Request: fold
Amino acid sequence: MPNNSGFSADPAPTPGTPLVERVRNRVQHVRGRLDRREGLGLRRSEAGEAVVARTDSSTPWSRELRALRIVFREMGRTHRQYRRLTHSPISMDLRSAAIAFRQEPSLMSLVPVASFLDEMRLLKW
Reply:
């Protein structure tokens, strides 16, 4: 399925990579893209040493949360495209996993959502 999120897909995972690691890698990839887009990555000073562009104690969690939500929305779009093509209803277990993620977004609540899509071979990362 095409990725309409504006974020490039990660390279294909190596066989046998645990799903938790794949989800973590995807979230980190998206967070890195957010950091670069917002200019929050490392920059070089005139002397050549690496310095952090901006440091705000509240932003790391908010960037992590944004990355989690972006990955969740990517998976939602992918699943909706699949359902449109197959005319299949949403699984109640998947719906429950999505609700759990929305109530308490975290890597560990995102993995069950990814698991359903991975079983259907919809995840490309």
In short: The chain has four helices and two strands. Helices lie at 19-37, 59-86, 92-103, 107-119.
